[in-house]
Structure formats: structure tokens, C-alpha cells
């Protein structure tokens, strides 16, 4: 269900960030360096949207209508002097309108999207196979996730699979736009069945 609108600077990428997922970025354009500085001062995040038309650098790209708020977890400077960021996806949003600042930064008025409150967060029996698949994927990956696993939570399982499975960007974007975590899981299950 949509929440109140807010203003959010956008960082259009040829990538889809889902809630809870981590993403490493290298920042070199002045508009994004200023954006990161402003986010640090305000203690807020910025929006990551899939690019529908254009490139990541240069002229402002056309972003998808749905994206995810990115919060900065860590930053450093690379050997070549660029700013590197580690961000994590937080809340999903729907872009209501955009404007381009004179610096080339795209700023959007967004409505926050939450998972459908009418949908139980508990994993349904027909999706238990997906939780088991995720458990095995995480065991093979070995790395420590900052959050404890929630294999009974439909939204958590869906987002982790959307992050880890080898999906195309349009497939990942389609999952991001769904409000019902059970519908998201069913689409993942159907996609896995089609690939068998």
C-alpha cells in the first residue's frame, strides 16, 4: 500500500536493487558526489532505479517508475581516487514525477511502497521449496549476512532470491514492482519450473 510522498534524489543504474540487498558503487560524477555529501549530512538515502533509456554517466537517464531507497553502509576511496560506496536496499518506492536539477541530478517525488499488509508475512507451504533452495544457496555462498535468516518470512525469502538468483534486469524489476510477497514467490517458483 502506498505511503505519504517524499522527495528523493535518484541514482539511475543498469542494475536493480531490492530491499535488503547490498550494492557496491563507484562515484565520480560531481552530481553524485554532491548527492552523497547531502545524504551524509541529512542522514538519509537516495533512490536506485533501473535505467530504461540512457547511460549511467553523462546526460540524465530515464529511470524506471519503481526503485529502492539505498542507505550508505560504508565508504572508502579507491586507488584511482574515486569514492566507493557500499549501500543496502531499504524501502521500495514508486516515482510520481521527476525533475532535473541544473547539475544533472534527477530528483523524484516518490510514494513509498510496502508489502501488502493483507498478505501474511508467513511463508506458505507451496513455497517451502523456495526457502530450502535459498538455505542451500546461502550455505554454499558461505558469507555472513548482516541480518539473521528469516526462512519463514515470505517477503524476506522472496527478496533474497530476487537478489541471488541469476535473473535478467527486467525480471528483477518486475519482482520489485509487486506488492504481494506471495505473488512474488509464485513468480519465482514459476520461473524456476520453466527453466527445468
TrEMBL record:
Where in this chain does the record put each Lon N-terminal domain? Answer: 8-196
Q: Which UniProt keywords apply?
A: Hydrolase, Protease
Q: Does the keyword Protease apply?
A: yes
| Superkingdom of the organism of origin | Bacteria
**Gene Ontology terms: biological process:** proteolysis
- GO MF, one annotated term: peptidase activity
SMART domains referenced in this protein's UniProt entry, alphabetically: LON
Instruction: Specify the protein name.
Output: ATP-dependent protease
Species for this entry:
Thermomonas aquatica
Amino acid at each position: 500500500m502506498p505511503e505519504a510522498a517524499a522527495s528523493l534524489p535518484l541514482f539511475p543504474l543498469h542494475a536493480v536493487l531490492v530491499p535488503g540487498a547490498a550494492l557496491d558503487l563507484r562515484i565520480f560524477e560531481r552530481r553524485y558526489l554532491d548527492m552523497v555529501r547531502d545524504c551524509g549530512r541529512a542522514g538519509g538515502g537516495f533512490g536506485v532505479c533501473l535505467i530504461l533509456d540512457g547511460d549511467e554517466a553523462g546526460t540524465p537517464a530515464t529511470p524506471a517508475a519503481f526503485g529502492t531507497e539505498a542507505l550508505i553502509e560504508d565508504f572508502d576511496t579507491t586507488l584511482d581516487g574515486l569514492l566507493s560506496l557500499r549501500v543496502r536496499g531499504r524501502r521500495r518506492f514508486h516515482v510520481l514525477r521527476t525533475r532535473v536539477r541544473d547539475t544533472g541530478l534527477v530528483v523524484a517525488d516518490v510514494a513509498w511502497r510496502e508489502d501488502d499488509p493483507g498478505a501474511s508475512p508467513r511463508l506458505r507451504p507451496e513455497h517451502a521449496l523456495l526457502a530450502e533452495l535459498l538455505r542451500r544457496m546461502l550455505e554454499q555462498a558461505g558469507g555472513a549476512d548482516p541480518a539473521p535468516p528469516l526462512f519463514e518470512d515470505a517477503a524476506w525469502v522472496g527478496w533474497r532470491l530476487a537478489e541471488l538468483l541469476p535473473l535478467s534486469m527486467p525480471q528483477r524489476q518486475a519482482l520489485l514492482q509487486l506488492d504481494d510477497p506471495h505473488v512474488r514467490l509464485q513468480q519465482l517458483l514459476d520461473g524456476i519450473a520453466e527453466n527445468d
